[in-house]
User: Fold this.
Amino acid sequence: MRFAVIQFPGSNCDQDCVHALQVLGQEARLVWHQETKIDPEEGVILPGGFSYGDYLRCGAIARFSPIMPAVKAAAERGQVVVGICNGFQILCEAGLLPGALTRNEGLHFRCEKAYLRVETPASRFTSHYVTGETLTIPIAHGEGCYRASPEILQELEAQQRVLFRYCNVEGQVVPEANPNGSSHNIAGICNAQRNVLGMMPHPERCCEVEMGGTDGRGILLGAAGIGRKI
Amino acid sequence: MKAKEFALKLGLTEQEYGTIEKGLGREPNENELGMFSVMWSEHCSYKNTRRELRKFPTTGPAVLVKAGEENAGVVDAGDGLALAYKIESHNHPSAVEPFQGAATGVGGILRDIFTMGARPVAFMDSLRFGRPEAKGEAGKRTRSLIHGVVSGISHYGNCVGVPTVGGELVFDPAYEGNPLVNVFCLGTLRHDQIRRGAAKGVGNPVFYVGAKTGRDGLAGAAFASRDLTEESKADRPAVQVGDPFVGKLLFEACLELYARPDLVVGVQDMGAAGLTCSTCETASRGGSGIEIELDRVPQRETGMTPYEILLSESQERMLIIVHKGREKELKEIFAKWGLDAAEIGYVTETGKVVVKAGGKVVADVPARLLADDAPVYEREAKVPAQLAEKQKLDLKKILPAQPKVKEDLLKLAASPATGSRRWVWNQYDHMVGLRTVGKPGSDAAVLRIEKPGGGWVHVAMTLDGNGRWCAQDPREGSKALVAEACRNLACAGAVPLGLTDNLNYGNPHDPEIFWQLREGVEGMADACRFFDLPVTGGNVSLYNQSPAGPIHPTPVVGVVGKVEDGVRLVPGVFGKGGGAILLLGTQESGGLGASLYLQEIHGVLVGKLGKVDLAMEKKLHVLMRGVLKLTGVRSVHDVGEGGILWALAEMTFGEDSAGAEVTFASGQGERPEEALFGEGAGRILVEVEEETVAMVEQLAKEAGVGCHRIGKSGGANLQITCGSVKECWGVRELRKLFTESLPKALEG
Assistant:
């Protein structure tokens, strides 16, 4: 499948996403934020980084980029849209996903491996996994604390839209395993149509053994519509 | 004010003023004097150290761009790939404004690298502060400096998307009044992508690109060339303010520009001395002149005087000279990235930098006079009066009658001086770019770099300094540093290609300080020659002293190397256990002179490090690279600060590391503490599978290097037997102390 990796000024995981997708046998092209078109058969990746320097608020300016109406239209048409890290923040600011990402509870930027519990295989992004499976995927953010109103959190839970939660190495979702103070230990969610994923951890950073692990492969392959080989 | 008075006020000497007047053939105006004061500061001209720096070996088959030629050195990494790298200090700015001081240090070295045409791929930092656990105001101030510097580096480095992959963090009272912040950057490029900072081609347009000019960082280079005093806080306006977002846009725009064939003539970043430095250096290198109009310089404040515009050190700005007729292409690229690009002048044949404001000439100076003809001084050097006394070591007076090794190691593990640096590197994005192999905290950082034709080259790098060793014996200390850096690379299977140095010393007008510097340079130069390691440039930072006194003499070296084909990279910590532990190299401990052990456990800095056997060291490195090509090698760690016992302890600090059981003898008439904690060079610990032992022994025998089996990994304890000493520690307990000491000291 082909992906459009959106390049905002200040994106810095754009090339990494292209590389990871190519490693997985997918096509990827960089799309500058001032472009306005996304092909109907493409998947869309909003990569990590510091779009517009993250001034004002993470992702707050990027949502006004000329490419964003096309991203919204793609999401509405049911195309795959994945926001990673800063991309997740942009999706929330743009209203494609509910809630917001605020400053980490510990106030520091944190770059380290995180353990994620897969909450449901019922999405293309998690179709490679079983419920309760533990993945090791790195995080690298200063503002990854997921916040939403009690009503929204309830709705996310009721509709099984929380796809990943921070957990400990044994797979238990406990407060100590929460690196940023996110509500319900949320690491990644999808929209109601289940075609838009936002997650703080970086699956593109763990698709090769040399980079320290391959647990991110399933997420990106799933996004590409490729099922798990049995 | 008369010109001469003004010159003296700016820090120029009477003699220097005379040279300027003579060179110009008339009385200089204030703008010109401002330009000379920064260009002839130590920071820009190396006027106090140039004679010493000439002692470094600077050539070699791998050198593509030599020291002093351009903004950074470049070496050949094979397969058409080149490495551009350099270290730079931001000590003074970080002392008065830690967050911006450190952040702009990162931004500055980043520009040096992409100016060369390279894509920046990694940062490392060497940081030195006072003791964070100190009580009262001193400790409070140190902790706030550490927080500021680490978050400044994290702020800039993370945002520009270049990983910070390692470095060093040292706490010593010697740096309490004057912290050291040295930043290293590595970039990669193809040979044909190397850019030069020369203004050539009469009539070619000169562009100013990047951020707008403001009043920040006025005469920062001159500020960096003075002692730190109580009044230094008043120099805060000399500290620049960084904008990493613009830094990122600027390097992406420049790389896009460079990719256009035959467009760019020359590039120079505007760092220290800003517009002044970039115009006179490019003109001087090109053997040409430059004329600029200041009214065209993008400004973010109104009412700036020519003096301010010429001396501003506002960040994220570059000077670019393109071929005439290609202006539109440059403008389009910078417009795409949302950056200013103003044509401010053109290349001339006059050999002069002519500056106009409102059409009127406000400065007219020969480029060479400014850039290259700064005076060179021979400073007086004198062996410090106290040195012989400081070098004496009487262990009987220091060590207890009965060794207390059990307690000693627990204390060491609990000290922030040795504790895990995870608190720091967790705040740095060390993975972005998908090149970082392994985690920070190893002997050397390893990156994979894409070859021009596909596939990967692996590159290793390390930063090493040791103020304690150099304070006690600047010559041998510097030699030991170079040996250690090369040993660190050997632990990653890499052959060193080039070295960049940051010479951090006190005030060079003090003959005892200048002696330290000269000894340091000569020691380093000797070792570099021995290892066939060219010095490709770096930075000199002098005047590192506060009312409390000068810092330890602290040269810091950054060495880059290429991992040999066939090497398998292994971690620096034990895995599940069951391996044999071998000590490669010498069995001599080197004694406790200048050791971390004496400072941390007994509170004294006395004696000196044992002499480094460079010939043996070199053989050891060759052996190490050979051993890493064998199957069955599990982990490798070099013996450095804290000696062999601390090295073993560190090997048990992996997340799931087993313990070890080790036995070795102390030397004749040696105290067990010396054998355990001595920091002598030339030793590496290797953990291998049983079946591999014989092969390693064979290789060592052929290489003429010692190989001693000292124990095995496994179990939940670290057990050692050394002469009369038999001790045991729980690995979990040690690891807990090691992990918690730094966060505890910094966050309480």
Remarks:
- Chain B is about 35% helix and 25% strand.
